[in-house]
Write a structure and sequence with these properties.
Number of strands: 10
Strand content: over 45%
Structural class: mainly beta
Helix content: 10-25%
Largest sheet: 5 strands, antiparallel
Distance between the termini: 22 Å
């Protein structure tokens, strides 16, 4: 990339990630390569994102900074039972408020206890076996490494 192109103004971005959860950085723990970012998303709920140290600097992430956690719907896993341990760092409980049936997958929308909304795409079989339907309590599981972070420009 030439230096001229790197100084051009960047256009505002729209993203394809269906989940854009607003929050504020609580802590940033740097490691040798990656950092763990704890985000308060309201209502007593939080999310964790794993990003590079370079991203921490580029986004000027620090406690109190407004941030958006971006997650593709295909990266969200649902469960309806409390699990003693699961490797996904983010377990967000709420109530299913919409179900849209597709040709191959279904789209599930859930209002989190924290007030935010999470959408997932699941197979018909998974939706049926979990008994997912509007009004059903469920938990969205999201790996911390599947969370991208964005900040207001």
């Amino acid at each position: 990339m030439s230096s001229a192109s790197s100084t051009l103004p960047r256009p505002p971005l729209k993203v394809s990630a269906g989940n854009q959860i607003r929050g504020h950085v609580v802590t940033v723990e740097r490691g040798a390569v990656n950092a763990e970012v704890l985000i308060d998303i309201g209502g007593g709920a939080s999310m964790v994102a794993i990003v590079t140290d370079e991203s921490i600097d580029a986004l000027t992430l620090r406690p109190g900074r407004e941030v958006y956690a971006l997650v593709q719907a295909s990266s969200v896993i649902f469960t309806t039972e409390r699990m003693p341990f699961v490797s996904a760092r983010n377990a967000l409980w709420g109530v299913v408020d919409a179900l849209r049936t597709g040709a191959v997958n279904d789209e599930i929308s859930m209002r989190l206890d924290a007030g935010q909304r999470v959408t997932a795409t699941l197979t018909h079989t998974s939706v049926h076996e979990l008994g997912l339907a509007p009004g059903r309590r469920a938990c969205a599981l999201i790996k911390a490494s599947s969370v991208l972070l964005a900040v207001p420009a």
